[in-house]
Amino acid sequence: MGLPKFLQEELYVPFLHWLDSMEDRRRKVKTQQNYELSTLGISSQLGNRYQPLGYGRLKKVLRLARLINPNSTFIDVGCGLGRPILLALELGFSKAIGIDISDKLINLCNQNISKVKDNVTLRCCDIENYSFPNGSLTIFLFNPFDGSRLENLLSKLKKNNCSGLIIYFNPKYHDLFKEKQLLRTLKWKNFGLFEERCNFYRF
How many domains does the chain have? Predict the structure, then answer.
């Protein structure tokens, strides 16, 4: 293992996880765990492993999204344990929807959002079977599934005449978006150890 990899895996990332665990403790929630789909009884063909995005990144991303698309419904596709939902409500979104294919993660998410349940709707389903609501939407994606499912999601939004903003963190399938849809990109270098990126798209 080279020095940069050692610093990333043994020092920097554990430090970020410790900061996030302190944020969890302050809110009396548990959103820090990772889950492989296989441990949830779900085929890996239906999506990617669940892992939370750090509080620091989320706050910056969601503050900007709130400025770009105020008075919208926040939708977390692949909501997992609910961290983005909690922060979205803290930062000014008045209503949130969480969608996840795992009933176990939905149940855990339900426990974490117990204090804000009146503002949140949770749905356990495959995104292929979900009908998006009317009105302005802010959709959060942290690579929850493969390119074909993302392509179907974008087609569904277009067909239903939905409008709003897509937050796409570490956009693996950015080529599915048209260049004119891109509004803003945020980047983090992490001291040169690894790079993170978040794209904001209009739809």
Answer: 1
